[in-house]
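> forwarded from #structure-qc
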């Protein structure tokens, strides 16, 4: 499948169809791949432009509670008002948001499960910024588990649970594991190799937020996007019950 171009801004019907959860504090949307969450230096379409359609009677549009990469899809949390955003900020900053990602990677890790503990820092060379492993970087820890592999062993389906929230953390950690994510344009690609034809196979599968002191945490799950289904099926995924 060809790598998706930048997506246009979502219409009211399109963004509303992607709402996975809504209450008085938050909205969780299923972010599409190929659309940045906010406007970058170069401008262009972004997901924030569609938030005006998610007011649901409130005087202002919701705002981002955290970030996802342009090419990552899945659970994205929005705060509906300043009080909600402040609460989300404390939850994410305190490491109390439990995030689960699914990735389809090249190869298979040597161990069926484990923890990747490699600090990351940002480099900004002229050809474009990237995250790199550095002992002087910010602490970054990801737990992973192999959920299945293809019959030929060329692909594996990983469940990744980051304990920290560094930029590109799972993408870098999978590459350092020797198993770069399918469609990964930066990390784990041989120098001089052409960009991948397929989109990034990384899904923010689920999020668990302790929002209310007297209630169970809010848990939201996003479905796999269409571009990941073939590779997931090759690794044993048979769909949600």
């Amino acid at each position: 499948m060809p790598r998706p171009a930048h997506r246009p801004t979502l219409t009211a019907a399109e963004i509303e169809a992607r709402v996975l959860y809504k209450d008085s504090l938050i909205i969780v949307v299923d972010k599409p791949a190929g659309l940045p969450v906010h406007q970058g230096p170069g401008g262009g379409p972004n997901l924030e432009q569609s938030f005006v359609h998610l007011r649901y009677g409130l005087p202002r549009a919701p705002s981002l509670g955290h970030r996802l990469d342009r090419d990552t899809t899945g659970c994205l949390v929005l705060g509906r008002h300043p009080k909600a955003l402040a609460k989300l900020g404390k939850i994410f900053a305190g490491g109390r948001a439990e995030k689960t990602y699914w990735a389809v990677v090249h190869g298979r890790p040597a161990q069926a499960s484990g923890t990747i503990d490699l600090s990351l820092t940002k480099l900004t060379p002229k050809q474009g910024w990237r995250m790199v492993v550095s002992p002087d970087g910010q602490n970054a820890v990801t737990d992973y588990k192999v959920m299945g592999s293809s019959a030929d062993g060329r692909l594996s389906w990983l469940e990744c649970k980051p304990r920290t929230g560094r930029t590109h953390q799972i993408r870098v950690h999978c590459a350092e594991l020797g198993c770069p994510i399918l469609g990964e344009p930066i990390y784990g690609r041989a120098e001089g190799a052409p960009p991948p034809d397929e989109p990034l196979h990384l899904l923010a599968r689920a999020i668990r937020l302790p929002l209310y002191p007297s209630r169970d945490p809010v848990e939201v799950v996003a479905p796999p996007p269409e571009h990941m289904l073939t590779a997931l099926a090759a690794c044993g995924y048979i769909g949600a019950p």
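QC bot note: Helices lie at 12-17, 82-93, 169-176, 226-234. The longest strand covers residues 98-106.
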